[in-house]
């Protein structure tokens, strides 16, 4: 079932995504974070699949930028409207909301679509969106300069060790900003390192 579900996702991405290299790289980083942080989030392979789907589809709404509604919201709409065969309605809503919350506001109960989810599904959305926000930040320039990420979990910190092919200051500054959800969900500060150097956010 997972293979069929992924093929559905990839088909929609191929049909609607104008920058597949970027979204594929973001998805790869998000899955690296998921796998590294399994002991922290405790989610299953099925949730990993939902994250992969959201990563592949989080930018498909860009084709509606002219509407001024925000591509993240349009991505969520397109995901909901697609005639899925291998995801349940609740799973489709999770994918749509993780894509929707990859930027801008964090998930909140004022959003009726988020509020309508069962409590366990809301928590899944929060955790997966937290990972996707960081992954998307780490390809801020769409140049794949963060080639790999590993993590170290401490009682009060998550340390992200970045393997890079060039300067990553802009990516890390963005990750600190969009790491707001990860800090809230995982109750830890975020530290980004390249080699032995900590990349500090702006004061």
Give a short summary of the structure.
The chain has 203 residues and is an alpha+beta fold. It is built from ten helices and four strands. The relative contact order is 0.13.
How many structural domains in the coordinates? 1
Low-confidence stretches: none
Number of helices: 10
Q: Would you state the CATH class? A: Mainly Alpha
Strand content: 5-15%
| Global outline | globular
The SSE string, one letter per element, is: HHHHHHHHEEHHEE
Class from secondary-structure proportions: alpha+beta
- The helix content is 55-70%
Superfamily (CATH H level) name: Hypothetical protein af1432
Query: Number of DSSP strands?
Result: 4
Instruction: Return Rg in Å.
Output: 16 Å
Which fold name fills CATH's third level, the topology? Hypothetical protein af1432
Task: For this entry, give a set of tags.
Hypothetical protein af1432, 203 residues, 4 strands, single chain, alpha+beta, globular, 4-stranded mixed β-sheet
Folded structure, characterized:
The chain is an alpha+beta fold and 203 residues long. It has a single domain (2-198), classed as Orthogonal Bundle (Hypothetical protein af1432). The chain is 55% helix and 12% strand. The protein contains ten helices and four strands, in the order ααααααααββααββ. It has helices spanning 2-16, 20-36, 38-41, 45-57, 71-81, 89-100, 112-115, 119-137, 169-178, 180-186; strands spanning 146-154, 157-164, 189-194, 197-198. It has a four-stranded mixed sheet with strand order 1-2-3-4. Strand 1 and strand 2 form a beta hairpin. Helix 4 crosses helix 8. The longest helix has 19 residues, at 119-137. The model has no long low-confidence stretch (mean pLDDT 94).
């Amino acid at each position: 079932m997972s293979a069929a579900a992924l093929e559905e996702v990839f088909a929609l991405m191929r049909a609607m995504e104008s920058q597949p290299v970027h979204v594929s790289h973001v998805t790869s980083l998000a899955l690296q974070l998921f796998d590294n942080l399994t002991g922290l989030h405790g989610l299953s392979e099925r949730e990993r699949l939902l994250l992969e789907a959201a990563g592949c589809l989080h930018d498909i709404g860009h084709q509606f930028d002219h509407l001024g509604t925000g591509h993240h919201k349009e991505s969520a709409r397109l995901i909901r409207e697609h005639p899925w065969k291998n995801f349940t309605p609740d799973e489709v809503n999770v994918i749509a909301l993780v894509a929707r919350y990859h930027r801008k506001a964090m998930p909140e109960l004022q959003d009726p679509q988020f509020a309508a989810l069962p409590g366990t599904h809301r928590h899944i959305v929060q955790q997966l969106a937290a990972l996707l926000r960081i992954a998307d930040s780490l390809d801020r320039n769409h140049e794949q300069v963060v080639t790999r990420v590993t993590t170290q979990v401490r009682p009060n910190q998550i340390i992200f060790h970045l393997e890079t092919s060039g300067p990553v200051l802009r990516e890390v500054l963005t990750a600190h900003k969009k790491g707001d959800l990860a800090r809230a969900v995982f109750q830890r500060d975020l530290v980004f390192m390249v080699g032995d150097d900590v990349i500090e956010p702006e004061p």
